[in-house]
Each structure stands twice: as C-alpha cells, then as structure tokens.
Amino acid sequence: MPRSQRNDNFIDKTFTIVADILLQIIPMASGEKKAFTYYRDGMSAQSEGEYAEALQNYYEAMRPEIDPYDRSYILYNIGLIHTSNGEHTKALEYYFQALERNPSLPQALNNTALICHYRGEQAIQQGDPEIAEAWFDQAAEYWKQAIAFAPSNYIEAQNWLKITGRFGE
User: In this structure, what are the phi and psi dihedrals at residue 152, rounded to the nearest 5 degrees?
Assistant: First the structure.
C-alpha cells in the first residue's frame, strides 16, 4: 500500500486528500502526476525517519520528472537524507546537482555551507588550521549566497560571518 494511503494523523490525511484532489483537477501529464505522488510519499517517509523508503520514492520520482525546478527539490531532499546519515560527500553531490537546476535554492546553499563549516571544525580538531580556514572561507561563500536569496533567514550564519569578519568580503 502506498505511504500516502497509510497516513495516521489528521494533518497528513488532510494534506493527502487535498493533494489527491489537486492531482485530479489540475491538468498535468501522467508522468508529472506519478512524479508528484512518489515525491509526496518520499516526503512522508522522510518525515518519519524512514530514509531508505524515502530515497526509493525520490529515485522513482526522478524518472518521470523532467522539470529542472521540481527535480532540484527532489535532489535537495536526497541530499538531506545523506546529510542526516552522515554521508556528507554524497550529500554535497546532490546539493550541487540541485543547485545546477535551481541556483536560487537557499536551503541547498545553506546545507552546503554547513558541511563546509563542519569540515573546517574537523580540520581544527586534527590540528590543521590552514585547511580549516579554507573550509571556513568556502562555507562563508555559500552562506553569503544563501543569505542573498533569503535575507531574513540564517541568522546564526549571519552572526558567524560578522564575528569572523567574513560578512563584507
């Protein structure tokens, strides 16, 4: 049974009903409907921590989805799962793919910056301040881009940029 038919709480059931109605009344190709259904099931599985199931649904959603903007969100969510699993290199690959299709996706820029910052912290712990600075500089560049698209978001990043003197660079 598809995940969309297994939702237990009121909000998920309501969302599913509204989404199903929209799928019926909005004119779109059957491939787009199929992609949306897989994407919706992937988001549901992801929100419940069922990452393997979510990935399976996202990969299935990629097959019929041809719109670059919509694909960017699927790729972004795949990146999120890899980030949650500690697979940062894989996550970066998916964030970069998402950004290729949608360069103004601030959450992908933010998450890329977070991974760069984390790698900078790791370099400090390993006693390599030069490598750490390079990672921090990279994080700053991604955060500045994310903030440019969403100025009221990423307050902690903005503070970090100011404190470290990287905001105006």
Answer: -90, 0
Sequence-separated (6 or more) residues with CB below 8 Å from residue 7: 13, 15, 16, 44
What parts of the chain have a pLDDT lower than 70?
1-31, 169
CA distance 157 to 19: 35
For residues 18 and 157, give the distance between their C-alpha atoms in angstroms, rounded to a whole number. 36
Q: What is the DSSP string of 53-119?
A: HHHHHHHHHHTT---HHHHHHHHHHHHHHHHHTT-HHHHHHHHHHHHHH-TT-HHHHHHHHHHHHHH
Tokens of 135: 């990672």
Contacts 24+ apart (CB under 8 A), 36-45: 36/61, 37/2, 37/4, 39/65, 39/70, 39/73, 39/74, 40/4, 40/16, 41/2, 41/3, 41/4, 42/74, 42/77, 43/77, 44/3, 44/4, 44/7, 44/12, 45/3
Q: Per the structure block, which two tokens stand in for 51? A: 């990452």
Mean pLDDT of the chain: 88
pLDDT at 25: 58
* CA torsion through residues 149, 157, 124, 108, sign: negative
Residue with tokens 């903030």: 147
